[in-house]
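A further point concerns the way the authors explain their paired sequence and structure data. An entry of this sort, consisting of the sequence and the corresponding backbone structure tokens, reads as follows:
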Amino acid sequence: MLWFIIIIILLVVGAAGFYISTYNNMVKSRNWTDEAWSQIDVQLKRRNDLIPNLVSTVKGYAKHEQDTLEKVIKMRNQLVEMPADNRQATMAASNQLTDSLKSVFALSESYPDLKADTEFTKLMEELTNTENKIAYARQLFNSSATRYNNQIQTFPGNILAGAHNFQKTAYLETPVEEKAAPKVSFE
């Protein structure tokens, strides 16, 4: 009889330990995913802080390109005002801003004095580095989301996830237009 009680106690303690360990791992994974999103947010803010300097530098050289600069400012302001909890919309706005910035960088080809400006060159470098950091942070987020989603969708985590209302995290996806292969001409 004593052995039976000891076995029951060990099973209960083992089950409780397994439950606690599984739950804690899901919380950790969710927190890593949130932290990975936070890294994206930090880089987006860094880029948003650099844009006014870029616009003011370009304005001096490219007075005829007011529409391009206004588009960049509009996209930046839209991104700044975006609700923090809407990750997909934030990344869609960020992608539009990235496209607008490409237009500003292209202006340097039309304005050699701008291309030679050290402030512009420095800002372009910083923005390029920031874009690379955003890309890396997106990869980290998707990796963290995969780990978290795997934990809450596989057995036995899916049982605990349902009981504790853990929700699947959506991946950050590349926009369809960016997936298309660029058209190349050798003419």
Q: What stands out?
A: Residues 47 and 131 are 8 Å apart (CA to CA). The radius of gyration is 24 Å.
